[in-house]
Design brief:
Blueprint: H1 7-11, H2 14-18, E1 28-31, H3 40-51, H4 62-70, H5 78-93, E2 96-101, E3 107-114, E4 123-125, E5 128-132, E6 139-145, E7 152-158
Antiparallel strand pairs: 1-3, 2-3, 2-5, 4-5, 6-7
């Protein structure tokens, strides 16, 4: 994306910008376990696509239910990810991108951006990074409890950085030279 492209220009229709609609009013927040009511996410996505002047004929959250019947059993929190994957693919065909605000919580804050198929980058909302659903986050959160002293340790790392040879303050080695956790070290999900 070029410098003049800002989040507001991508997620708000021209009429919304003219009326002073704020980005916060077009964010859909969903807990990691899913929607409060079935179909809410699809309704949100369809409404945003309509705001951009297109008819979202392929928005179908039942697709992931059908896939789940023939595939492996879904764990808690898997269905929302399937829905988001499906809707992201549908939006791509409409020149839109499903965006997620990397807020560091277990809540998905979602936006629909009119991108014309371009991969938006360098966007923020309230100082938090915003990226296309399915793309790698700019930062990775790693947390664990030391197997020796039980201290909780948390790192927020750039995506290209590892915790190679990292140790706890108590001296316990936690990661090997390649950044993989050593035996007995369990990362929090």
């Amino acid at each position: 994306m070029t410098e003049p492209d800002v989040l507001e220009e991508l997620v708000l229709a021209p009429g919304e910008r003219a009326r002073g609609v704020r980005v916060d009013s077009v964010v859909f927040a969903m807990d990691w376990t899913g929607e409060e009511h079935p179909g809410q996410l699809a309704e949100f996505v369809a409404g945003r696509v309509r705001a951009f002047g297109a008819e979202p004929t392929d928005v179908d959250t039942d697709a992931d239910h059908r896939d789940a019947e023939s595939g492996p059993a879904l764990g808690r929190g898997d269905l929302p990810v399937r829905r988001l994957d499906h809707l992201s693919a549908v939006l791509a065909g409409l020149g839109c991108t499903l965006m997620v605000v990397d807020n560091g919580t277990d809540t998905y804050e979602l936006l629909v951006a009119l991108t014309g198929g371009r991969e938006p980058a360098g966007l923020t909302h309230h100082g938090l990074p915003v990226r296309a659903w399915g793309s790698e986050p700019e930062q990775t959160l790693v947390s664990l409890n030391c197997p020796n002293c039980s201290s909780m340790l948390v790192w927020e790392l750039p995506a290209d950085q590892t915790l190679a040879d990292e140790r706890c303050d108590c001296g316990t080695a936690l990661f090997d030279a390649t950044g993989l956790p050593l035996p007995g070290v369990t990362l929090h999900d």
